[in-house]
Design goal:
2 domains, 72% helix, mainly alpha, 19 helices
Length: 474
């Protein structure tokens, strides 16, 4: 069950909210935990026991870490055991086949792939569990707050499939969370959910059809340069609206239940550098690697350039691996490392004095990001490099060009709206409206427009035009 399914929209969420708000006090946390476990049981019943076992082990390990906090070596031992357990589960389901297949090639042995089905949200659960243990060790979390809070943090259904990677204190450390049912936060959550739903169904799913055709033509070796660029640009927008749409929905659901959730996107294509792009894209993942990998390794405050590059390489190698057990993701992560290392070495773009050069560099960054998304999307590294080759070298194919033009004309409105919404147009409009006398009326018109778009999006889902989330398998 996905958050864009009709069952989720018209049965699960209304029922969960009803039960949650007729319950009082701390019982609400029990209700929300039960709802989250039920959601997981519907989506991945075969792995429900694994989820429960992992919750028990992580919570118990957290208590042991807190209890022996004064005895640093003992606390570190339990922390290490907890981290190793979580990484072992992740490795077995996500990377075991990949490692064994490559080892079998090296040693010329036959290996039959196990084709293990990845448990729902395993990567996100693993990172949240590790952050819970580390924050407990550093004293940022008080385990006395209860077992239910810890279990709810790690298994909260709104963030289960594709994040954001919130921290324990994001959920339970804020004093402004609406546990007493503040209507403003609830209504804000509903509106945020609607925006995310519209992004996913109307924009991401429509652009996905164009992307699929372009990459299919690439597989057949019949792709033209023009169609290749069109497909790559559409995929860059599709992934943004798909993932940011899910983040909006997760944030909205969290607010409906009275909890704050960290932002995950900040107009990433407005970036001026590759480094900045990753401060704007999947913000919570970048923050996780920064706090739990990069800084513990020494971060940027190291005494040699070698250590700086080592730290960057470790982060980006792990970032690539986190996204998938495939050489294309390792290549994707390492190429980001190379470019970011160059930026840090030469202090780009800060050293550029000319406005023209800064703008030119921005364009180069966007082109590089688009190339990287092609590698990310392709069916393997070889296919991705072949696609990029077609984009760089002039590869004519009149039939492919005609198909690309037809798709552009047929989806022109969605493409234009998608491009416009990649830029901070709406915040600028909202800021302007606050200064006008008719701001309330115009704001209400905007809300009505989004509601109408939401109804249109539901009709798309009813018609069967609903694709899985792009990040659901990570």
């Amino acid at each position: 069950m996905a958050v864009t399914d009709l069952m989720f929209l018209f049965w699960f969420i209304p029922g969960a909210l009803l039960v949650y708000y007729i319950t009082r006090g701390k019982c609400r946390e029990y209700v929300l935990l039960a709802v989250s476990l039920f959601f997981y049981a519907c989506g991945a019943p075969d792995y429900l026991f694994l989820l429960l076992l992992s919750l028990i082990i992580n919570i118990f390990t957290g208590y042991l870490i807190a209890h022996f906090r004064e005895k640093i070596r003992v606390a570190r031992f339990f922390l290490a055991m907890g981290v190793i357990y979580n990484l072992a589960i992740l490795f077995f389901f996500k990377y075991f086949d990949f490692v064994m297949l490559n080892l079998s090639k090296v040693f010329q042995q036959n290996y039959v792939s196990q084709n293990l089905l990845l448990p729902l949200g395993l990567s996100f659960f693993t990172f949240k569990a590790i952050s819970y243990l580390i924050d407990t060790y550093t004293g940022k979390i008080e385990v006395n707050n209860g077992v239910v809070k810890a279990a709810l943090y790690m298994s909260f259904f709104a963030q289960m499939q594709s994040g954001p990677l919130s921290r324990y204190n994001d959920m339970f450390g804020r004093k402004d969370k609406c546990q007493e049912g503040r209507f403003s936060l609830f209504s804000e959550g509903v509106y945020r959910f609607v925006i995310g739903f519209n992004k996913k169904i109307l924009l991401a799913n429509t652009l996905a059809n164009i992307t699929q055709e372009a990459f299919d033509w690439g597989i057949k070796g019949e792709l033209s340069t023009g169609f290749a660029w069109f497909g790559a640009v559409c995929y860059s927008m599709q992934l943004f609206f798909d993932f940011s749409g899910y983040s909006d929905m997760a944030i909205g659901i969290s607010q409906m239940f009275g909890y704050r959730c960290p932002e995950n996107f900040n107009y990433p294509y407005m970036t001026s550098s590759v480094s900045e792009f990753w401060h704007r894209w999947h913000i919570t993942l970048g923050a996780w690697f920064r706090d739990y990998v990069y800084i513990p390794l020494g971060g940027s405050r190291v005494d040699t350039k070698f250590k700086l590059y080592r730290n960057l390489f470790v982060v980006w190698f792990l970032t690539g691996m986190w996204h998938g057990a495939n050489w294309q993701f390792i290549f994707w992560g390492v190429t980001y490392f190379c470019v970011i290392a160059i930026e840090k070495t030469f202090d780009w773009p800060n050293r550029f004095k000319s406005r023209f050069v800064r703008i030119l560099y921005r364009l180069c960054v966007i082109v590089f990001v688009i190339f990287e998304w092609v590698i990310f999307r392709a069916d393997g590294l070889k296919a991705g490099l072949e696609y990029v080759k077609v984009m760089i070298l002039n590869t004519p194919n009149s039939l492919a060009d005609l198909r690309g033009i037809f798709l552009l004309k047929d989806n022109l409105v969605f493409v234009i709206v998608g491009i416009l919404l990649c830029f901070p147009i709406m915040p600028v409009i909202e800021k302007y409206l606050k200064k006008t006398e008719a701001s309330t009326v115009i704001w209400n018109i905007g809300i009505l427009a989004n509601v109408l778009l939401f109804l249109c999006a539901i009709s798309f889902v009813v018609a069967g035009q609903n694709n899985p989330f792009a990040y659901a398998n990570f």
